[in-house]
Specification:
5 helices, SDR_DHRS6-like, four-stranded parallel sheet, 17% strand, Rossmann fold, NAD(P)-dependent dehydrogenase (Short-subunit alcohol dehydrogenase family), globular, oxidoreductase, alpha/beta
């Protein structure tokens, strides 16, 4: 991606997979889905992008509600989300050239509750427009090392 795009002012990542299963049915291989995709994928996006990020640029990664409000079958996803949040907080103090890094932690979205509703029973789904505002705050604000929660 960086080779095709060149220099950038901001990168937002809202991609990443995780396996949802009971912890007693989880295997190391299934757990690796979230670690490789959701956690390492986002961390590597930052690590590989320093040369393409303009001075004062911004990285925004995505976590999720499950790391703070666990759901059944969500331990692996919570692990990946928590790892991303920890990376953001720790990396912020070492980012070069005024580059900032934050994460956005949305609740389940109204637009996808039909697909994930059985996993998130009792959750107050949020509209995607509110999550977009958190991404905008991360990109255009001055904060770094923050996890913007949208609940």
């Amino acid at each position: 991606m960086y080779e095709q795009v060149g220099k950038v002012d901001a990168v937002i990542n809202a991609a990443g997979r995780a396996h949802f299963d009971a912890v007693t049915d989880m295997t190391p291989e299934l757990n690796d889905i979230g670690i490789d995709s959701k956690l390492k994928g986002q961390v590597n996006l930052v690590l590989l992008g320093f040369d393409n990020m303009n001075d004062g640029g911004s990285y925004t990664l995505t976590t999720g509600v499950m790391m703070d409000d666990p759901i059944a079958k969500g331990a692996s996803a919570a692990l990946a989300n928590g790892g991303v949040r920890a990376f953001v907080k720790a990396a912020a103090i070492e980012m070069p050239r005024g580059i900032r890094i934050n994460s956005v932690s949305p609740n389940v979205l109204q637009e996808s509750i039909h697909k994930f509703g059985t996993l998130f029973q009792g959750f107050d789904a949020v509209p995607v427009r509110r999550v977009v505002l958190a991404f905008e705050k991360s990109v255009f604000g001055l904060q770094t090392g923050q996890n913007f929660e949208v609940y």
